[in-house]
Amino acid sequence: MSDSDSSDIPPFPFARTCPFSPPAEYAPLRAEGPMSQVVLQNGKSAWLATRHEHVRTLLSHPATSASRAHPAFPATVANVGAFAQKGFLLSMDSPDHSLHRRMVTSEFTLNRVRRLRPRIQEIVDECVDRVLEAGAGGGPVDLVQELSLPVPSLVICELLGVPYETRGTFQKYTEVLLERSSTPEERGAAFGALRAFLGDLVSSKDDAPDDALLSRLAVKYREAGIYDHELLTGFAMLLLLAGHETTANMISLGVAALLREPEKLATLTADPSTTPGAVEELLRWFSIVDYPTARVALEDIEVGDVVVRAGEGFIASAAAANHDERVFPDAATLDLGRQTSGHVAFGFGVHACLGQNLARAELEIVYDTLFRRIPGLRLVGPPEDLPFKDATVFGIHRLEVTW
């Protein structure tokens, strides 16, 4: 597929008309067939997969490319080439992807994250202390600024070895990079500034190594004889971007959803052992990283009764797949007791989210701690009036609460 001249093909990405539901266009497209055509912002067309089985098939197919530099890559944001820089695992194909992912996988295993949990708990408790201080007398307090952003930012800063006092710098650039309304020039400038900031940080680790992840990675690459300052800078940028923005948005969205349904929240707080399952359901229900799972077919791929031809781009929608009634009956309902095995909120296949174990731990600890320590928490206004983000990663700008 190339430039589209058909007015019958819908423009993509779709907007969420209800913040607590995926885009309405997914359901009819999912019912019509395995694949649909959509028109991207650059006027090119691409395939869109909306059924769970086909999303998983495509994301695990070996004859696909995730390279943002590929001329047929279906770009859903302007200046997507910025994300094709050295060190960006999400844009690498094998064998490079396998090589570099192996370098960092051990840092995010279940065992490593279990060892981090006591420190994460300390960070969450400190942030909840500040929430209570900021809202002495009952608030209101913006949880985004006092809890949702600080928790994952502190965790990833400590993990990587990034000075926490610089968080304002990288959070500002991250917002520009992920905002759908950012121009190519704005996104390019933010990318360049963030890369320069992290390049200086990587250089400082060379001069004065510490026990943090970036220094450990530098040692691994030197021992393997493949040290590359530019690549390590890109690695740092990807981990920093992915390590705080997505989790911060899920913290805010999860709190809003649970406060919106107090009976479900009461059931959850009565039995903290159910929190891990509730986190999985919230991840499925929101699917905040919906359409960056784009690829290019490197050979013809059969998907149901459709053939995606070699050289054609496709998008595998996480939100559409996670609301497929064939797999998740009554998918529109937030069911905290649901068996969510198989959801694709963290992607699927070789490019599945590297930090998903860390994200789960942070979410579980935040929800358990926040609702235990502030049992009377409630939203200041109607949940539908919250200022939701129109961005590559769905979220909330502000979350004002009281108690």
Automatic annotation (TrEMBL):
<comment type="similarity">
    <text>Belongs to the cytochrome P450 family.</text>
</comment>
<dbReference type="InterPro" id="IPR017972">
    <property type="entry name" value="Cyt_P450_CS"/>
</dbReference>
<keyword id="KW-0503">Monooxygenase</keyword>
<keyword id="KW-0560">Oxidoreductase</keyword>
<dbReference type="InterPro" id="IPR001128">
    <property type="entry name" value="Cyt_P450"/>
</dbReference>
<keyword id="KW-0479">Metal-binding</keyword>
<dbReference type="InterPro" id="IPR036396">
    <property type="entry name" value="Cyt_P450_sf"/>
</dbReference>
<keyword id="KW-0349">Heme</keyword>
<protein>
    <submittedName>
        <fullName>Cytochrome P450</fullName>
    </submittedName>
</protein>
<keyword id="KW-0408">Iron</keyword>
<dbReference type="Pfam" id="PF00067">
    <property type="entry name" value="p450"/>
</dbReference>
<dbReference type="InterPro" id="IPR002397">
    <property type="entry name" value="Cyt_P450_B"/>
</dbReference>
